[in-house]
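Hi R.,

Quick one: here's the NERD domain-containing protein sequence you asked about.
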Amino acid sequence: MAQLLKLADYVSRYEIDIYRYPSRYVRLKKERWQRVQREWAVQKNISIDRPFWESNEEEEKTFFQKSWNKLRRKAKMELDDEIELPSEQEMPHETKDQMKASFLEELFKFQINWVSSTVSERSAVKRSYYYDSLLEFLVKKLPDSFFILYEPVFFLKKATVDLDVIILTPSEIWLIKPLLGNENTIFQFDSDRFWSKKDGKRESKFLHPIISLNRMRTVIESILKEKNLSMPMKQVIVAKNSYIDIPQHNQRAKLIDKRNFHEFHEQLLRNKSPIKHTQLKIADALLAKCMTNSSSRLISESENAETIDTFDEYKE
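And here's the predicted structure, written out as tokens:
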């Protein structure tokens, strides 16, 4: 799973220490996956191809119960890296594929938590992000060494600048302009400044996507130049669920719609490699220029506790 470094203007743990949290996330994910597999195997009374997990059922249950209790105690003390373990009632998966899908969904929500809260701060997350198909796809389907800034807000020269999607790979920076639509939506060229969006009988115009991409490129280039950093950039217009009825030739950005989205994904995966030091330095430079709006976690939790004490119906 790719690492979501920044979401909108929410407070992010990666802003605290970009050189620490990427490796910590990879470690936590690996440990979590091992625990999920072991727990699932015990419930299904099956063996998994890991020698050190093999033991009789009673020994495994005892081991997992001790591990569960230890993890629960640790979770209460360390809010910073808390990962809630599901109960047996929350793991009704019949197959390993179902278990994997559930694990990815859990990690996706965990990532949103990491880019919307720290030990002391918290940002209110728009519910729509949990159902954003492009965000979910990028996080779930790209490797750990890919960093994502999704709709970040930058603060440059005393002004805020809203950008779209930035994917920072170990060797390239992908600037992505998403186009929202359904399977019946068709995007077409209208003029040098506008495109049209046709959805059945409805048609509307919107600003040419290349304008947003060029703004993104200008912002990123200025930040990298300031830090004496550089990395190749690619510009992409993505209509994941719709069609772009425009010839690719003479376009200043790559056009991706539902017909070639799979090929685009495969192209991204070809850049798979370990996290690079330059990549971390660029991520640090970008995060340093991002806006953050948050509130004190301790205060909000205290207020929430008072509300819960006052209104019994809100008790969990």
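Residues 13 and 118 are 6 Å apart (CA to CA).

Cheers,
M.
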